[in-house]
Amino acid sequence: MRIAFLGLGKMGEPIVRLLLKHGNPVTVWNRTAARAEALEKEGATVARSAEEAAVDADIVFTMVMDDASLEEVLYQGGVLKAMCEGAIHVSLSTISVALSKKLTEEHAWRGQHFVGAPVFGRPNVAQEGRLWIAVGGKPEPVAKIRPVLEQFSRGVSVVSEQPWSAHAMKLGGNFLITAMIASLTEGMVYAEAMGIDPAVFVETVNSALFQSPFYRAYGEIMLHPPEQAGGTIAVGEKDARLFCDSAKSAEIATPLADIFTANLQKAIELGMKDADWAGGYYRLAGEAMRKPR
């Protein structure tokens, strides 16, 4: 199938490399043209615009930062009108439930298909082809795209026939990541106050209780934030806020998520929006805990 891929950031670029490695014909577009041109050497066709990339594509993948970016690409960028009847738009991004519902209706009205397929995993996981994908969509388009999704993932969970359910699932999963970061932060600061090396604390409780590579990896990131953030505070704040918004639409209270969102918003106000999501949260919340009351 002919594939268009729009958005070549930290997650999109490694996914395209894997699609090309599997022999797929892929046309790429990115706001920063240099990223797209780098993939041309590996066999990708570079489009001059998002609209041009989407013309005649069987599958249009989007991997962009947020709701505003996606709507800009689809509407102002001309992608919706360029997609042919029967084409499938697959949103790999973490977007709001409200926008996912809107796009489901928009594509149906145009005779197109929409599938929500947000991915779990940081950029290094994407490079290794080990993402996990939550999928929401009608059986026919899901069946068509599943073999392609499996080329850059270690597993796929079909959530329901509603695309928005996959995006809701992703927001719930990211809430749990933030909850883990917050609980590790409090535990590690407590350990340090008790004279325990935070690294020893994480290693011990993970070995004794969780036995999770996730806890181990995030503990390491929190203690030694990477120079290049895998996921930023800005991304974490966006996801936490969207989780709260979708819960409120279902009349569900989110007391923990409200605290996490406030902390992440404070970090942005302090100029930390580009800091690592885990490392930045640990630094900010840890400093607040250490302050005399």
Throw out a few tags for this protein:
293 residues, alpha/beta, Rossmann fold
Could you characterize what this model shows?
- The protein has 293 residues and is α/β, with parallel strands linked by helices.
- It folds into two domains: 159 residues, Rossmann fold (3-Layer(aba) Sandwich), CATH 3.40.50.720; 123 residues, N-(1-d-carboxylethyl)-l-norvaline Dehydrogenase, domain 2.
- The protein is 57% helix and 13% strand.
- It is built from 14 helices and nine strands.
- Strands 3-2-1-4-5-6 form a six-stranded parallel β-sheet. It has a three-stranded mixed β-sheet with strand order 7-8-9.
- Helix 2 links the parallel strand 2 and strand 3.
- Helix 6 runs antiparallel to helix 9 and helix 9 packs across helix 10.
- The longest helix has 31 residues.
- The mean pLDDT is 96.
- GO terms for molecular function: NAD binding; NADP binding; oxidoreductase activity.
- Pfam families: NAD_binding_11, NAD_binding_2.
- Keywords: NAD, Oxidoreductase.
